[in-house]
Design goal:
Layout (H helix, E strand, L loop, with lengths): L1 H4 L15 E6 L24 H13 L4 E6 L18 E4 L4 H15 L1
Parallel strand pairs: 1-2, 2-3
């Protein structure tokens, strides 16, 4: 309330960064969550972008000054190439994942070590 009664002056004018982009990178998903807006299924869909095409789009996004890229889907970890934006060193990046494929792999590793 104090800020409304006695507002502080604005700081220096800044050039805003580009938009944050949430990219549904792949349609395939190994879950069928009722709340999900994505039209996905546990099958490969035709015409998904190749790794090279994905990197071309990332380069374009960088030229548009996109500061943050969030990879979503479907399940982005189901891509055969498991795109890693960190290797491109272009963005602060994040990935939304259901982690089922990671947990499944981890479970196999842990089971093998325990035998």
């Amino acid at each position: 309330m104090q800020e409304l009664l006695d507002p502080k002056p604005l700081g220096p004018r800044r050039s805003p960064p580009g938009p944050v982009v949430i990219w549904n990178l792949i349609r395939r998903c190994n879950l069928t969550c009722k709340h999900c807006y994505s039209i996905s299924a546990d099958t490969d869909f035709p015409n998904e972008l190749s790794t090279e095409q994905v990197f071309e789009v990332m380069d374009d996004l960088k030229r548009f000054r996109v500061p943050v890229l969030i990879l979503s889907g479907g399940e982005p970890l189901l891509r055969p190439d498991r795109i890693n934006t960190g290797t491109r060193n272009l963005f602060r990046s994040s990935m939304t994942s259901n982690t089922c494929s990671v947990l499944s792999s981890l479970g196999k590793s842990v089971s093998a070590e325990m035998e």
